Amino acid sequence: MTKLNNVFIFDHPLIRHKVAILRDEKTGMKEFRELIEEITTLMTYESMRDVETVPVQVKTPLEVTTQYKVPEQSVVIVPILRAGLGMVNGVHTLFPTAKVGHIGMYRDEETLEPHEYYFKLPEGTEEKTVFVVDPMLATGGSACDAITALKARGCKKIKLMSIIGAPEGVEKVAKAHPDVPVYVSTLDRCLNENGYILPGLGDAGDRLFGTK
Ligand code: PRP
Ligand code: URA
Fold it and tell me: Which ligand 1 atom sits nearest the alpha carbon of residue 137?
């Protein structure tokens, strides 16, 4: 994993392998959805390296020992709708009891400005580690606004995870929210004139849900 300020880039060969298949235009909806989940689980494993554990007493068949566990529900998963929904199961694989908040954002196709249309968090989210997930970090507008909205509701410990990041988006989030670690599996080349990531994978929401 490479770290640049608060940005972590995964360079694991198994993640690279899966991302290569994900990008392929011939990869169909079912495989695309499964890959998003699998990559998310692999990335979650690494990005939660600093998650809190608490001591617990465990009785083995031979003796009582102090061991360490992640407290139940210490993490709240917050997908940015729609495409972030595709990552929720991947985080649940490792944090099965995590509650889920939702932030609805869509990018205006002309201006590329994000618009919030839905916001709902489980009670007590502000005390938890909030794990914002969205496969694509393009201009960074959606992620920045989502993080700002979470901070306005009192959330203090926020992490952002995206499968593909563009340099523009990563830089925008890093500047606006230097306290928020950003995890991407790969940093792509640039955005095209329509705000799509190059080489990217196209429209993540459409490929996940079959809308185009
Ligand atoms: C996509 C993607 C991100 C956003 C990234 O969502 O899932 O949320 O664009 O772009 P940005 O970094 O430039 O803000 P989109 O607005 O297409 O909505 P959808 O998930 O409902 O398809
Ligand atoms: N949203 C996507 O789904 N893909 C991109 O390349 C950029 C924004």
Answer: 12
pLDDT tens per residue across span 142-154: 999 999 999 999 9
Residue with tokens 């938890």: 128
Give yes or no: 206 in active site.
Answer: yes
> Which residue's CA is the nearest one to ligand 1's atom 21?
82
Q: What is the DSSP string of 152-198?
A: HTT--EEEEEEEEE-HHHHHHHHHH-TTS-EEEEEE-SEE-TTS-EE
Q: Atom 2, ligand 1: which residue's CA is nearest?
A: 136
Closest CA to 152 of 173, 178, 131, 121: 121
pTM above 0.90, yes or no: yes
List CB contacts of 15: < 8 A, sequence separation 6 or more.
39, 42, 43, 185
Q: How far is the CA of 114 from the centre of ligand 1 (A)?
A: 8
**Helices 13-23 and 29-47, packing angle to 10 deg:** 150
Query: Phi and psi at residue 200, in whole multiples of 5°?
Result: 60, -155
203 CA to middle of ligand 1, Å? 8
Question: pLDDT tens for residues 153-211?
Answer: 999 999 999 999 999 999 999 999 999 999 999 999 999 999 999 999 999 999 999 99
